[in-house]
Amino acid sequence: LLRWNEVRYRKKGLPPGTMGWPLFGETTEFLKQGPSFMKNQRLRYGSLFKSHILGCPTVVCMDPELNRFVLMNEGKGFIPGYPQSMLDILGRSNIASVHGELHKTMRSAMLGLVSPPMIRDQLLPKIDEFMRSYIDNWSGQVIDLQEKTKEMALMSALKQIASIETGPVSEALKGELFKLVLGTLSLPINFPGTNYHHGLKARKKLVSMLQCLIDERRSSSCSYNDMLDSLLKSHGSSKAKLDDEQIIDLIIALVYSGYETVSTTSMMAVKYLHDHPRALEELRNEHSEIRKGKSREDAIDWNNYKSMRFTRAVILETLRMATVVNGVLRKTTQDVPMKGFVIPKGWRIYVYTREINYDPAMYPEPLTFNPWRWLDKNLESHQHFMLFGGGGRMCPGKELGTAEIATFLHYFVTRYRWEEVGVNNILKFPRVQAPDGLRIRVWDR
Ligand code: HEM
């Protein structure tokens, strides 16, 4: 069978590599061995090799230059290549799967919602208010930080999007959103009981709940000063003309894209700070300085956020060390030449950016948590900086996500001390997660 599969994919011009078993390919090895599988294949075949993972013939690209080329050249035949389950559940107008003109429209609407002036005037005050009350009574408790940061990312997003506060509506949305997220990471088998089936049902419910919300807003004369308001106001204007279905898909994409990224980075930042007291001390000094002259109830503003240089460095170092994003997926729309090979139409390209994070040429002593490295050189504008992707799909929520994590850290480190309870196992692949939670005991400072 193994031989047959190799022969089946033996085509002139393909990069070297192995295709594994029919149907399953090398998915098991990829998921079980993770980064070691990638490194071993690179040793044998070079930084561009073929494989068959997650149900598709795939070319894995570990060359930073080529990765940049793929991300910068969507128009040359590299469109998004995310799994079917994700596309079905996130909707057909979902920004991360559409391309061409529709992508332009959806992206410009998205950028309008999360631009720096919007963060400064509208979102940061909401994030601040949310974080302050969310972490208010953690003192004296043992909490699961993973659970808390997940809920935080979701609830904070709901407040920014539609001014939804904690209550029955947020609980109903939360339940469906959790099911939706699980569904996007499942095999697309629509059978009662499967995560995919639950995900599709959750999407249906969410769409109807969001449609009700839109209808209510249309018939109300109140102004809400949130993302949904902005989307409805630009509805029909010369800016972005989105119909209701597109508005709903945009909202789902907003929650979905910021959910695991923001929660995991917040959790891992706290973990690294706990393990690196010198970094924690410097971070605390930065935040204590910001709180000087402010009362407990005073919010942080845009200038405060902009002054958090070390905090930003901690967030970037956390993203790098934990590798919250391993890479991104593309699909070829035609046969495309790459490094002397030809990648056939319809193949996936796994733009695997993980190894750049541990490249000693870019990050000396790459296995050391060293936020200071981000202060010296302008690493954020390095051409191989891909923590937030690159090219025309570079994360539009980069600044918003950073502001959320920074605000969370601000209140967390100025209010509390904490220590880990027991040994908390953390997996880094295929997703960063603490399978049994990350338990910490929290006290007032
Ligand atoms: C630490 C936080 C975050 C990280 C590390 C991150 C990372 C990324 C990466 C790597 C991509 C590129 C995906 C690709 O090329 O296929 C991306 C795209 C995207 N991100 Fe983020 N993200 C973060 C937070 C957020 C937040 C808070 C939002 C909410 C606005 C968001 C919205 C998006 C959207 C909508 C896209 C798709 C853009 C497009 O296809 O044009 N992200 N993100």
Q: How are the secondary structure elements laid out?
A:
Layout: H1 2-8, H2 27-33, H3 35-45, E1 48-53, E2 56-61, H4 64-72, E3 78-80, H5 84-90, H6 100-113, H7 116-134, E4 142-144, H8 145-162, H9 168-184, H10 195-219, H11 227-233, H12 244-275, H13 277-291, H14 302-306, H15 309-322, E5 327-332, E6 336-338, E7 341-343, E8 348-352, H16 373-376, H17 398-415, E9 416-420, E10 439-444
Parallel strand pairs: 2-8
Antiparallel strand pairs: 1-2, 3-5, 4-10, 5-8, 6-7, 9-10
Helix pairs in contact: 2-3, 5-10, 7-8, 7-17, 8-12, 9-10, 10-12, 12-15, 12-17, 13-15
Bound molecules: protoporphyrin IX containing FE.
What does this entry look like structurally?
With 445 residues, this protein is α+β, with helices and mostly antiparallel strands. The protein has one domain: Orthogonal Bundle (Cytochrome p450), CATH 1.10.630. The chain has 17 helices and 10 strands. The protein has helices at 2-8, 27-33, 35-45, 64-72, 84-90, 100-113, 116-134, 145-162, 168-184, 195-219, 227-233, 244-275, 277-291, 302-306, 309-322, 373-376, 398-415; strands spanning 48-53, 56-61, 78-80, 142-144, 327-332, 336-338, 341-343, 348-352, 416-420, 439-444. The strands form 3 sheets. Strands 1-2-8-5-3 form a 5-stranded mixed sheet, sandwiched between helices. β1 (48-53) and β2 form a beta hairpin. α5 (84-90) runs parallel beside α10, α9 crosses α10 (195-219) and α12 (244-275) crosses α15 (309-322). The longest helix has 32 residues, at 244-275. The radius of gyration is 22 Å and the shape is globular. The N and C termini lie far apart (63 Å). The model has no long low-confidence stretch (mean pLDDT 94). Protoporphyrin IX containing FE binds next to α6, α12 and α17. InterPro entries: Cyt_P450, Cyt_P450_CS, Cyt_P450_E_grp-I, Cyt_P450_sf.
